[in-house]
């Protein structure tokens, strides 16, 4: 059977695959720092060469920022679009690394062998799992299993400024049946996971304005309205402390309860609530009282305060009543929540609570993003889930994700594509931090997982 | 009658007195900036020379910072201690000045003639009112009217670090019957005022600590406790929004109601509440509902938020749940409020309201200061009030002050002296700001006022 041959080939080729990944990891493609512009280009060139060697017709495509890499290979069966990114995070603080971030190596650790280096997990190691699966497939079968478009970005860690324009300009070329994204973690170590719902995002920022100028608290302390007190009261009013719910009227419009069968699956997915909370210093969950931590994180909306400031924050004391106080908020959206509608509700909530003589200025007009809920009734999802379960010998789960991954929304809104987010990273991979690593198991079983998924999708 | 001769002499000598003040104003004695150390020294020398010329045995006295100026003259009758400060505020932003801050001149303005320059009002012009009154007295009578100690500081605008040690070390030498302080404003233009009660001060600062590290609001938004939300709730709990009162249990212990006759005096003292509030952008008072603006400012305690900060405050957005949030507060104290006791109550208030998993750290252990309430039953107070009323042809008032003037408390606690705070500044003098001025009327009638007060005190 061809799949078994491919899997054997993957096992045999693992040392060489690891070497190839090391080569890519040695290129310091830090996208946010202009000093590494040539390195980003070099990483793109490396991928272009590697894909062309696989028979994928691949080109580096210029953008106002770092280039895209786009490759096409023809074939029968479904048309897949695979996405990953070749850029990496900066490495500061360098002194906390145990080795040169761009001189990767295999290390033995108590938890197993790992590939240590910047980008090992996010996202070079992950994107190469798919490329290596294709390589093994081709070695055994002489061609790739189906029509595939490869789409690699080099600006993911710097806000993807070129992504939407590029996708919009090349929408026809990037069309496919379904997208595969390899940039996520597993719910728990060894538990294969497909992220099928991502929370959306709304950002806003406001300033409460009180007196015309900063005042002396000896002169105006008492009769004077203090914007810091005002903003504290308003921020405190955002939540009902009894229930943990957001108290903005209509906030939960469009939120749906998680279906019972999905909830059961989540409850048995291996997520360790106590460990998740304890690892950052919590002894208990602090959100909505009627929902588990996992539901709160994956399926419930939030209104979070990300910044709050005003007055004097230097050493010692200053007897000031400041003229202004500021607050930055983000909301995570789920279900059918409408970001524009929600923004209006939040602003109305604040405005209704202003004291006389207090004014509010809204300082953000960024567009919000709806939640992404994948259509897991599509047969590809169940086929991929089965393939993952087979590889990891553990029931794979459709999980949610607390974060907001804009690329999935863009695939849907610009290209009309559902996306399967399948990744093999672990929570302890230290992505964005010193000593990033990728478990050798993630890399090896990740490659094998994609081989099984390709097999399942082409047979589906 | 000697007093009339002194007053005539003052009128005749006004141009020369103004020239002398100009000379002192030309010395840029900015105490907070080490670049002006020699100028502070020069201002002290100028005063030493001027007082010695008056027959006051005066010396410059070294401190770890800028020097004190201490002079003694013997005489019959009461022993007075006169305090002022020769240092001035920095002049930034310089571009907002209409002229060189240290090239003072007389200007005609719609509200009358003013002396424009840094320190004209705070405090060189004010301290020279007393020196010029003494000069005129001596010119007419051949000697000063009574035993006087002159005590000038050069660090008032930089926190008076040497003051308490110097007063403690020289307590015996600085002993007197009563202190006179000329560093305050009149309640309203043309309304002579003796500040007989000053609010005390308590400073504190706290940090709310939530998770062990900054968290991603996508991962922990929902189940995670957010210190910004926590601190907003706690800050909001400090006040009862219905009544405007501070809601800390026992906060008002030691606060006394203002006696009815004093309240009547305040109500007719010429304070224009609407103007006071409107000038900074308020249309109404915002403090305790049952008290007038003047009572709130002079006779009621406050708990004020001076700084509040945590999380991200740069451009754009950062999806962070910060590990810490911070708050600086000051309380103004009145009556018999005990700062140590109050600090315990405020800390208990915060600690009782912490959520599970939230901790508080207290970041300030500065000593508090009780309110100063002068004993206005002493005959000197009524004598001075009458003298002021005679000069300004308007009933002088015993007023409160919202601010906290530590020197008055130090005179009481270190030297056992009551202090009469009598100053001729106007609220629009722009002290600490560009284009500081002192009304020529304040200077002229201020000198005449001290002559009358000296006369009244020596006859009392």
From TrEMBL, chains A, B:
Gene3D superfamilies: 3.30.70.360, Zn peptidases. Keywords: Hydrolase, Metal-binding, Protease. Pfam families: M20_dimer (PF07687), Peptidase_M20 (PF01546). One of its GO terms (molecular function) is peptidase activity. Residues 207-356 form the Peptidase M20 dimerisation domain. GO terms for biological process: proteolysis. InterPro entries: Cyt/Met_Dipeptidase (IPR051458), Peptidase_M20 (IPR002933), Peptidase_M20_dimer (IPR011650). PANTHER family: BETA-ALA-HIS DIPEPTIDASE (PTHR43270), SUCCINYL-DIAMINOPIMELATE DESUCCINYLASE (PTHR43270:SF12). This is M20/M25/M40 family metallo-hydrolase. The lineage of its organism: Bacteria, Pseudomonadati, Pseudomonadota, Alphaproteobacteria, Rhodobacterales.
